[in-house]
Amino acid sequence: MQNNLGILSVFVKMGRIYKTIASAFINMSDLEAPLRPKRKKIWVDYFVKFRWIIVIFVVLPISFTLYFLTYLGDVWSEWKSFKQRQKEHDENVEKVVKRLKERNPKKDGLVCTARKPWIAVGMRNVDYKRARHFEVDLSAFRNILEIDQERMIARVEPLVNMGQISRATVPMNLSLAVVAELDDLTVGGLINGYGIEGSSHLYGLFSDTVVAYEIVLADGRLVRATKDNEFSDLFYAIPWSQGTLGLLVAAEIKLIPVKEYMRLTYKPLVGNLKELAQGYIDSFAPRDGDQDNPDKVPDFVETMIYSPTEAVFMTGRYASKEEAKKKGNKTNSVGWWFKPWFYQHAQTALKKGEFVEYIPTRDYYHRHTRCLYWEGKLILPFGDQWWFRFLFGWLMPPKVSLLKATQGEAIRNYYHEMHVIQDMLVPLYKVGDALEWVHREMEVYPIWLCPHRLYKLPMKTMVYPEPGFELQRRQGDTHYAQMYTDVGVYYSPGPVLRGEEFDGAEAVRRMESWLIENHGYQPQYAVSELSEKNFWRMFDAGLYEHCRRKYGAIGTFMSLYYKSKKGRKTEKEVQEAEQAICEAPDAEAD
After folding, report:
1. SS3 state at 439
2. Any transmembrane segments, and where (predicted)?
3. Which H helix or E strand runs over 281?
4. Which of 209, 388, 414, 488 could join 254 in a cystine, given CB atoms 3.0 to 4.6 angstroms apart?
5. Measured between alpha carbons, how far is 99 from 253 in angstroms, rounded to an integer?
6. Residue 15 pairs with which residues in a beta bridge?
7. More confident residue, 164 or 33
8. Rounded CA separation 547/556 (Å)
């Protein structure tokens, strides 16, 4: 009898094991991307494959020259006194005001900056500048106006970039609270558009660290908007507005104290996507909800998902030079041109296990610049090889603006269809669902994960947390902010790499629908397929349209949707849309 019971228990255990294995296979099959037919190659495929020739002999030399000239300009600016910089700033603002007042609304087009369309770092085509428009030159606004160590504020002009500001502040053991990784990203773009970094789980998005905006309005008035003055509605409406409310001429941004090094811990994990997502959440969000405790929450966080089963979590804390140089501690200056690309260096943790190293703070801030995350591998397939890094790595990276200027219409359309550069901003607790969606629909790896707070503000802004989030108190949330995460999807999709058919536009449409359904957001630097109706389902238009009317932007600056939408914008199309807004029933409510 006992033998029979023993045999029976063995069969029961075997049945449970088989059930578990079968369940795993079912879950894996749910994640499998659909089978796709092979795609017939066209001439553009071969041009893209050998585009590295143009990059090597044209783009890289010109990029290096421009970087060097920009550096010389920054050095020249730093030699000037703050008083001299302020004087030049005031003169340049007067020129902008004068230029706006010269515009004849009946004859001239809508106001745009004079910057050429291909100079923009974002991947979205700047098609709105192909229509008739009235240019205002802001190219002179590239100075750091003041670094106030008492107020811990940096006052800067909109074309100051991240490389420039970190070069000035880090030697002073100061930094912007959020420093976007790529050197070329400008203050104006990060404010009017979107900016994030590994410290955003503490400080929010780049625009959340701004204390005041100096804006030239449609009528030529210069105003200073803060969260508690008469222009507080404008202060909260500026982020994500893409320069459609006024012209940003300066911003005051929060500074924080920093140390010379970043103590970075690399921790690998193997598991399914849901397990990787939970590991990512646990890397910076205490399960006991003590999210504001600096002893439990690191200074910097990012994760890279290298495959459906492999990830490396990176958490950093500022460290002094004395600590970094202690015997037994390893330092790594990742900014040197001959060093391995950062994402590949981090990937070594999957083989050698968890490890810790000390990286100079500024090197860490700009760790993804040389290889443009992992896009450099597509641009220069051999760019990560030791011989190329040693001989030519000092030329990297190619300027994104030059890559766009040398691609032409056919290549540009090819990248829109066969390549993905998108950021999905989703509530933290849904990051596992987002990873599974990306795997099923796009099969893009690596995937970049970076958390950020989305604050509950006095006014409902264009992007806002889920209603009632503070009652749920999910992992990472506080009573004043919901934790979101950026799911960065940058690379050629798996079907494209396998030579299969892939409809990039349709994939982006499905992604946008998924984001709307899950209270997520799509930064508008990227290519968007949103209709106007769905655009305003994703973003809240209330405060934005209120400020458009109140500050006279309608009829002077293009509306946000028509500036962001894909394709050429005709003047008639824009005017009809603006007229519809003016004639809306609540148009006179302000």
Report:
1. helix
2. 50-72
3. helix 273-282
4. 209
5. 27
6. none
7. 164
8. 13
569 in Cβ contact with 558 (< 8 Å): yes
What's the mean per-residue pLDDT of the chain? Answer: 88
Neighbours of 257 (CB within 10 A): 11
- Mean pLDDT for 257-265 is 98
Q: What is the rounded distance in angstroms from the CA atom of residue 568 to the CA atom of residue 177?
A: 37
Report the alpha-carbon distance of residue 171 to residue 186 in Å, rounded. Answer: 20
Q: What is the mean pLDDT of residues 138-145?
A: 94
Q: Is 267 in contact with 311 (CB distance < 8 Å)? A: no
Closest CA to 178 of 256, 118, 237: 256
CB 252 within 8 A of CB 155: yes
Query: What span, in angstroms and rounded, lies between the C-alpha atoms of 495 and 443?
Result: 7
Global confidence as pTM = 0.89
- CA dihedral (473, 474, 475, 481) in degrees, to 10, reads -60
In whole angstroms, what is the distance from residue 575 CA to residue 306 CA?
Answer: 46
Distance of CA 328 to the CA centre of its chain: 36
Rounded-to-integer distance, Cα 273 and Cα 484, Å? 18
For residue 518, give the DSSP letter.
T
DSSP states along 536-550:
HHHS--HHHHHHHHH
- 396 Cβ partners below 8 Å, 6+ apart? 60, 337, 370, 371, 376, 383
Smallest Cα–Cα separation from 272: which of 17, 520, 30, 515? 30
> 226 vs 211, 483, 549, CA distance in Å?
6, 24, 19
Specify the amino acid at residue 173. Answer: N
- CA 221 vs. chain centroid, Å, equals 31
Counting DSSP H helices and E strands in the chain, the numbers are 26, 15
CA separation, residue 172 to residues 168, 260, 460, 476 (Å): 8, 10, 37, 32
Rounded-to-integer distance, Cα 576 and Cα 564, Å: 17
DSSP classification of residue 318: E
Type of residue numbered 349: A
Could you give the CA distance from residue 206 to residue 201 in angstroms, rounded to a whole number? 11
Mutual orientation of helices 60-79 and 162-169 as an angle, nearest 10°? Answer: 40
254-258, 423-427, 434-438, 523-527 — which is least confidently predicted?
Answer: 523-527
Which whole-number Å values give the CA distances from 21 to 14, 529, 588, in the listed order?
11, 40, 64
**Nearest-angstrom CA–CA distance, 539 and 207:** 16
Question: In angstroms, rounded to a whole number, what is the distance separating the alpha carbons of residues 586 and 572?
Answer: 23
Give the whole-angstrom CA distance, residue 32 versus residue 324: 45
Residue 512 has φ and ψ, to the nearest 5°, of -65, -40
Residue 263 near residue 581 (C-beta atoms within 8 A): no
Please calculate the CA angle 263-160-109 and round it to the nearest 5 degrees: 140
Contacts of 8 (CB under 8 A, 6+ apart): none
pLDDT at 579 over 80: no
- The proportion of the chain whose per-residue pLDDT surpasses 70, expressed as a percent, equals 87
Q: What 3-state DSSP class applies to 418?
A: helix
> What does the DSSP assignment read for 157-223?
-TT-BHHHHHHHHGGGTEEESS--SSTT-BHHHHHHT----TTHHHH-SGGGGEEEEEEE-TTS-EE
- Written as six digits, the tokens of 51 are 């585009």
Residue 483: alpha-carbon gap to chain centroid: 16
